[in-house]
């Protein structure tokens, strides 16, 4: 399993947002993409999932051996690409249980029965410390920031995608929720999913240890390496790398 990004250049309203982005994320691997506000991190997440609000000037995106550069969002998802939203939407009238069962069964030849699915759902909700009663609530409606992020990670674990793009999975969370979310990400990695985790801060990387780290500033990859890059960033800040 591999997501490969080659020479990606993206514009919005004629302005270059991402320039010559090259990156690979392999199965059972964590790649951390860090950068300050406005650096282009969320733009990259949206482009990877096929958001046509962004103008892709050049470049190529492949998932395994399939060129997904011009595929629609739903086709990318069916091929195994997953995006965890920075701000997960609320969907009134759709219960968590029915929503998750629908998407889990989408690509399965043998569909899970209601009883089979409820057993799997309960096990994973318990693993993430989510009250089982939440399964009958409407998706994200009235949820706190931490609860919404847990729901995103619950989807990640249940779907077992090839590659997951996690856009600021740590935002709006307290330390307890952060640890739970990190445990969920680590479980997804153990299941074989490749993880691209997008974040501002080091704190989640204390619990989810990245195999590779890339620093994005003003739309360009300014530095890459291992955990040592994170340590340098904490010491010197983003400004020291912007040269």
Short overview:
The protein has 243 residues and is of the alpha/beta class. The protein has seven helices and twelve strands.
Helical amount among residues, as a percent range?
Answer: 25-40%
DSSP E strands, number:
12
**Mind telling me the C-alpha Rg?**
18 Å
Class based on secondary structure composition and strand pairing: alpha/beta
Instruction: Give me the CATH superfamily of one domain.
Output: P-loop containing nucleotide triphosphate hydrolases
- The helix tally amounts to 7
Give the CA-based shape.
globular
CATH topology of one domain: Rossmann fold
Ends apart, CA distance between termini: 34 Å
* Low-confidence runs of at least 5 consecutive residues: none
If you average the pLDDT, what whole number results?
92
The H/E string reads EEEHEEHEEHHEHEHEEEH
Beta strand %: 25-35%
The major β-sheet equals: 6 strands, mixed
What is the level 1 CATH name of one domain? Alpha Beta
Strand order across the largest sheet: 6-9-10-3-11-12
CATH architecture term of one domain: 3-Layer(aba) Sandwich
């Amino acid at each position: 399993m591999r997501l490969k990004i080659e020479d990606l250049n993206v514009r919005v309203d004629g302005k270059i947002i991402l320039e010559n982005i090259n990156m690979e994320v392999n199965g059972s691997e964590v790649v951390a993409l860090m950068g300050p506000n406005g650096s282009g991190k969320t733009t990259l997440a949206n482009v990877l999932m096929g958001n046509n609000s962004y103008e892709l000037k050049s470049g190529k995106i492949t998932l395994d051996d399939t060129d997904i550069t011009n595929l629609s969002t739903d086709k990318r998802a069916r091929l195994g690409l997953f995006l965890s939203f920075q701000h997960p939407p609320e969907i009134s009238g759709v219960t968590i249980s029915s929503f998750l069962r629908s998407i889990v069964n989408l690509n399965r030849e043998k569909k899970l029965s209601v009883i089979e699915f409820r057993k799997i759902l309960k096990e994973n909700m318990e693993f993430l410390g989510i009250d089982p009663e939440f399964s009958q609530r409407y998706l994200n409606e009235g949820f706190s920031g931490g609860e919404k992020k847990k729901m995103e990670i619950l989807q990640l674990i249940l779907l077992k995608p090839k590659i997951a793009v996690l856009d600021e999975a740590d935002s709006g969370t307290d330390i307890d929720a952060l640890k739970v979310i990190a445990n969920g990400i680590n479980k997804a990695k153990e299941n074989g999913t490749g993880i691209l985790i997008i974040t501002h801060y080091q704190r989640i990387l204390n619990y989810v240890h990245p195999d590779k780290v890339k620093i994005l500033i003003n739309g360009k990859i300014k530095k890459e390496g291992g955990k040592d890059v994170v340590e340098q960033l904490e010491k010197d800040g983003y400004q020291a790398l912007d040269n």
